[in-house]
Design a protein that fits this description.
heterodimer, A: alpha/beta, seven-stranded parallel β-sheet, 18 strands, 30% strand, B: alpha/beta, nine-stranded mixed β-sheet, two-stranded antiparallel sheet, 7 helices, 13 strands, 29% strand
């Protein structure tokens, strides 16, 4: 193995480890002889079982109390990295992952390599990302020694279990996180979710500016997604316009999806959007503008009005089921 | 209340980007205010209004003394700007950028709240807000979709995968705001005229005591290869004649999705 020890910053929703975490553990097994995980939260035992199945032998558990986990994890991580000297710490490019990676980067005065799509190692970590809407691939590496801090976009690797037993749990000392610990979670609101998650759905339907108005999102995008038992997403344009929340954004500054079928409704196909969906197995696009760049990557492109095509499509699908 | 906002001036995203020989992004042309940052500027102006007074200071780093993006934000209503522009800066990574911005916060003086976007549209590491916070030893409330300031505390709704969390910290603090959080105002003609005379305090990395910590040497990383990604082939494209939906049905049936 090229590397001795690689850590993964594990995240969970409740007591379920995120798929993106499992993807990182799978890749870590490929490049390091020892894989360990670090987790900040209250579901340590459940997380230990799941990360163990994907190859982590030890799970360091940090108790964030009521603080935002990613914000306080860094002080514990900095201490652990000092004691255990991993070659690299891998983070999911998520909300909490970015917080933890950023704080740790300052504590250790180490640069971060972010938005990774590929990862390999010989003596050093070889990191790959993409720029200009995924049209150019860029490889990078550190010019000095020291721990590599790497952010990886979800869906970059396929999660495969190793069949390992539960990781042994080691409690980690948070130490003094300074004023970072002041960011306190007062309340948690779970929005009712129907259907599959955006990153995990086999079908994703997204809407863009071409749907015309915020009130058209539900009847066109959400309803088609529902008819196809899929998830719904959005282009940056309508997130910026405040039509739908940021959590639905697919693209460079949003989520990466890789469904079996991606349906783009009224999305022109800015490079910012394409980088988040162009690796979908099949792409269908409906857009009024025949010159829209989205047609350049669509397997099936319909030049037409979403307000005519989509309601007819929803009816046709419903009549079949 | 004194609110500082980190703003980035970027090449127009509508124009295809290109890399220089040293793999930095070409930034020679006119730079514009990153749209992601317009939400922070608007939010800052609204928070200052709600607090009954104060001002908004812009913090930025850009090559060649570029100010056109800053003028846009000044025209929206920000009072002044600090611009770090230095031949040493190209190649600066996220950590180096955060060091520059943290020094700018200190240079601005008396900042109660620092607003940022969640990530820039060109570099998009998404780490700078929390890095700046750590450098200043301030709390960071990231990915805010709603912000309130009262009694020396800032309270936000923080975007999560399943909804949102209500998160609070005392000031001074860093808050990163998601796009769409407020509707950025268009600069008025009066605002545009006034912006021409608003102060832009220009500084170098050395002025901030950061010589050697910015640029490629500070970044401690190198680009080993740049290659064209394999292009995806376009498939069938048809004009809708009223039966376009049937094509989609057929396509989905073939894939056994329906």
């Amino acid at each position: 193995m090229p590397l001795n020890k690689v850590w993964v910053y594990a995240e969970a929703n409740g007591d379920k480890v995120t798929t993106a975490t499992l993807e990182l553990l799978t890749k870590a097994r490929e490049i390091a002889s020892t894989v360990e995980a670090v987790y900040a939260g209250s579901a340590g035992d459940a997380v230990a079982t799941q990360v163990g199945e994907y190859g982590a032998t030890t799970l360091y558990v940090i108790d964030p109390g009521k603080a935002l986990p990613g914000q306080v994890a860094a002080s514990a991580l900095a201490k652990l990295v000092g004691e255990q000297s991993p070659d690299a710490v891998l983070f999911v490019q998520s909300y909490d992952g970015r917080d933890a990676m950023a704080r740790l980067s300052v504590k250790l005065d180490r640069p971060v390599l972010t938005n990774g799509f590929t990862l390999a190692a010989d003596a050093k970590v070889q990191f790959g990302t993409a720029v200009f809407g995924g049209t150019q691939l860029v490889d990078a590496e550190y010019t000095d020694d020291g721990v590599a801090l790497i952010g990886v976009r979800p869906k970059s690797f396929t999660a495969e279990p190793s069949g390992g037993g539960a990781a042994s749990v080691v409690s980690a000392d948070t130490g003094d996180a300074g004023r970072a610990a002041e960011a306190t979670v007062l309340e948690v609101f779970e929005e009712e979710q129907t259907g599959p998650k955006l990153e995990e759905a086999a079908v994703v339907v997204s809407g863009g500016r071409g749907i015309g108005a915020a009130e058209n999102y539900k009847p066109l995008v959400e309803e088609l997604a529902k008819a196809l038992k899929g998830a719904f997403g959005a282009s940056r344009a309508i997130v910026d316009a405040g039509w739908v929340p940021y959590a639905l954004q697919v693209g460079q500054t949003g989520k990466t999806v890789k469904p079996k079928v991606y349906v783009a409704l009224g999305i022109s196909g800015a490079t910012q959007h394409m980088v988040g969906m162009k690796n979908s197995d099949n792409i269908i696009a409906v857009n009024k503008d025949a010159e829209a760049p989205i047609f350049g990557i669509a397997d099936l492109g319909i030049v037409g009005d979403v307000h005519k095509v989509v309601p007819a499509l929803i009816e046709a699908i419903k009549s079949k089921s | 209340m004194h609110v500082a906002v980190c703003v980035k001036q970027i090449p127009d995203p509508a124009v295809p980007g290109a890399l220089n020989d040293d793999h930095t992004l070409k930034r020679e042309g006119k730079l514009i205010l990153d749209e992601s940052d317009s939400y922070g500027v608007e939010m800052a102006l609204q928070l200052v209004d709600a607090a009954g007074g104060g001002e908004v200071t812009l913090l930025s780093m850009a090559p060649n003394g570029e100010v056109s993006g800053l003028r846009t934000a000044l025209a929206m209503g920000a009072a002044k700007a600090i611009l770090v522009s230095d031949p040493e800066c190209p190649g600066t990574d996220a950590l180096g950028t955060a060091k520059v911005l943290a020094k700018c916060v200190e240079r601005a003086g008396g900042v109660d709240l620092l607003l940022t976007a969640t990530e820039s549209s060109d570099g998009y590491t998404g780490t700078v807000p929390a890095q700046v916070a750590e450098l200043l030893d301030w709390p960071a409330l990231t990915f805010a979709k709603h912000i309130e300031v009262a009694d020396g505390k800032v309270t936000i709704q923080r975007q999560t995968e399943t909804g949102y969390d209500v998160v609070q910290a005392s000031l001074p603090a860093v808050v990163s705001v998601t796009a769409g959080v407020v509707e950025p105002r268009y600069p008025s003609f009066k605002g545009i005229m006034a912006a021409k005379n608003k102060p832009v305090d220009q500084a170098t990395a050395a002025d901030l005591g950061l010589s050697g910590q910015v640029g490629w040497s500070g970044a401690r990383q190198t680009i080993t290869n740049v290659a064209q990604a394999p292009a995806r082939q376009a498939g069938e494209k048809i004009e809708d004649d009223g039966t376009g939906f049937e094509k989609i049905v057929g396509f989905l049936e073939n894939l056994k999705v329906i």
